[in-house]
Protein 1
Amino acid sequence: MAVFVLAVLQLSAMPQLIPGSVTPDLLVILVVTIALTRGAEAAALTGFAAGVLLDAMLVGRLGLTSLLYMAAGLWVAYRVEPSDSVVVSPLSPMPRPAVQLLYVVVATAIVQVGLAAAHVLLGDGYPVTYELVNVIIPTIVETAVLALVLLPLLRRLFPYRMRADGYPIAA
Amino acid sequence: MLIGKNRHLRRRAVIGLLLAASLTLLTLSFRQGSEGAIGAIQRGALAVTAPFSSATTRVTKPFVDAWNWTSGLIDARSENAKLKDELARANAANVQLNQVNSLLTQDDRLLHFTQNSQIAAQYPFVGASVTRQVPNAYSQTITVNVGSSGGVAVGDPVVAPAGSSDLFAGLVGRVTTVTPNASSVELILDPDTAVSARVQGGTVRGVAVPNPGNPGVLDLQMVPQAEQVKPNQVVVTAGLQPNSQGLQALLPAGIPIGLVTSVSQSDLNDVFKGIEVTPFVDFGSLDRVLVLKVVKTP
């Protein structure tokens, strides 16, 4: 549901509300939130669903954005989850807000750089400098700014249920 | 506690499955384009999300309109400021053009004067610009940017463009001080100035002095009541010929001074007529002048 709402907002509302040629990536904020609060599996599932929906709505290469959202989600999840073989007790602490924001920035960078690289490799992208200056950096900045508001809201929607062993507790 | 092996495997399996699904979709997407199952998924997604998208657009439209209105207002304000700047620059350019035009007109009239006036044909002359003008009740002088290095000497008459007169130029005054590169000119409006004058086309002679009660106007004094003088007659300098006291006038003959504007003869006990002469030259806007080199410099 959250994926659907955010996808619609990202593609319908944001282009009108945010001036400029790029829009913030709301779905990556969701994927990062899920990775922080629910772990790797949930993040991968969310990233997959978000990517498929986004690519379907944009009539793009189905599966490309899914891969990138999954990569971003898994990177964040493995950063915060304890290692498989380590015993941790009590519960793993939630990263500080600034670190969460940093995760959003890095995750957005992963998605945007991945998309740009894919388009360049497929031969339908813009020059790298143009992509960097006009797409990647503005998207990261806008997403980071929006994450200041959206991250706390999404954390309330998806509260922290991760166990010390790194597996999310079923809701 | 240690992570269970089955959970570990499950996590890997789920992630692997999702990766495989993504890659499959990507491959199918490249193979089929917008046809087949991929196309159906995309069309289905569009159909499902379209109503929500249009609802979202309707909800956000007022905010977008408000934003556009506000940004439009800001743009209009900055545009207004820009246009005001451009208008100010255009006005400044217009003032400069008018000034240049005025100078060209004055130069044109002076050129006509030098080509058509007998007095200009008699004496060499030098053009000059007025660099300073000090008009007050006690002293009416101007400073011009030519001096002794240009052949100017004390006593030389100075003429300036004469407005709309057919005579093209009129008397301004007389050089009183000379430096190598500048000269001071005492205007005929100066209270201490008197110019020997005559009415053109007749024998009437008099002395043109500033009218103390009417700044900018001259009185033609010492004209006997018996003489015939009418308005609109031209008054010129009377010349160098010796007068009855054996004194010579300082200015050569024939330089236009002004037009007779009024002649009064009401007081029968008065020996002389009351004649007002309006100078040809507008002393309020002196820019270009000609100095007639009448006085021979050693």
Note: Helices of chain B lie at 5-32, 36-116, 118-122.
Protein 2
Amino acid sequence: MANLIAVLAAVLCLFMGVVVVSAKNPMHGVIALVANFVGLGVLFLLLHAEFLAVIEVIVYAGAVMVLFLFVVALLMAGTRSPQEARSKTLPGQVALAIAVVGVFAALVVFALAVHTVLAAPPPPTTSFGSISNFGTALFTTYLLPFELTALVLLAAVIGVVFLARER
Amino acid sequence: MGLAIGIDVGKALVVIIFLQAAFGYLTLIERKLLGRFQLRPGPNRVGPFGLLQPLADGVKLLFKEEIIPAGVDRFVFLVAPMLSLLGALMAFAVIPFGAPVQIFGRTVPLQVAGPSLSLLYVFAVASLGVYGIVLGGWSSQNKYGLLGGLRSSAQIISYELAMGLSVIGVLLAAGSANLNQIVSAQTREWFVFPQIVGFIVYFICAIAETNRAPFDLPEAEQELVAGYHTEYTGMKFAMFFMAEYINMITVSALATTLFLGGWHGPAFLPSYLWFLIKVAIFLFVFVWLRATLPRLRYDRLMAFGWKILLPVALLNAIGTAAWVALVHP
């Protein structure tokens, strides 16, 4: 049952990922990205990372993508029809995409050929993805990366405030 | 196994049907109350005391012609109202609306599902419901629709932050993000007393999140015709309407669960009735505010959210964290 859901969620994620890069209408790309994040949330849930799954949906699907939608809707507002807003295909884009997919597929095949597929690890305890475990890991083991990320975000916030004030 | 699944499906059906019926009668109660506030009787022609008015409205909406304007993005246009309603209905799934009951000799909790992070689940589903409004406004190729959708996305993003922060106090005081444990933590004392600041911020944000007056800027009639649902007709319009009212019920039920002790109450009434009474009080306040307060100006609304509610909610969260860490280990 869990495997079936995992496969369905993975297929959803991949399909929506393809739609994100191939959609002619930028709005459809944004919607596909939201669906992709929801699928990702399902995958996190199946890995017992409940907190991460919920945060993925709240922050990325629920907040960040609404802002994307906001910007795309504003940028498209001046165009007469959706056809006008369609993105153009860059020269060599398709060939490059096929090449990159080929490289990744080759990597996956190579990895599977070299290593045998590992047996599934023992199922984690129910408290594995809980808020307290997540918080403890964040403030002990991963304290330095966590604080550094916060610093990067702070720099971004200051930059945005500065740019907006300059007009 | 079969019985357990049957009970779960039954509970889901009961909740969905109840929410639909509650939506119908909430519109009637709102119109009746608004009438009273404005010194007129309100709808009273269909059935005794106008009690069949929701049925008449429903039949009318079902038989209305469905108009899809030329040049719209058909798929998005059709899916948007469904997304809105889906988000509204799904959020109610985790809310415990009564003490566990005995059915066929087994204890059944009165909620559709009880995941360990049910409080965050409500926020996750609610944040997805926004897409219905934004996409509906965008896809109808109408400037009023687009402006309504954009206003709503900005408003909901801003108030979602303060709302999320306002319930962190409750989360810390109960020591859990599970709504059942939050309810049982309030057996002795309702969180509305120690968390009065969080409660006030939560309720203001809840009004803004459901696009109700005085924060109903996405559908400000005088400026935007009907905002994001200007181009919608028939049942598709009704779905947006349903989503708004069911969201009202859900935020009221969440407020009851988080701050008013959930289904706890003196034993002379069954627990689900206590829950219903508390939710009804919140719904009455929603209508009362709509009849009383004028709409805020848009820039005032954003300034209020970011400069007052957010800092207050943040201070409340920090204060509660300090209290839990120092006084109440």
Note: Strands of chain B lie at 101-103, 106-108.
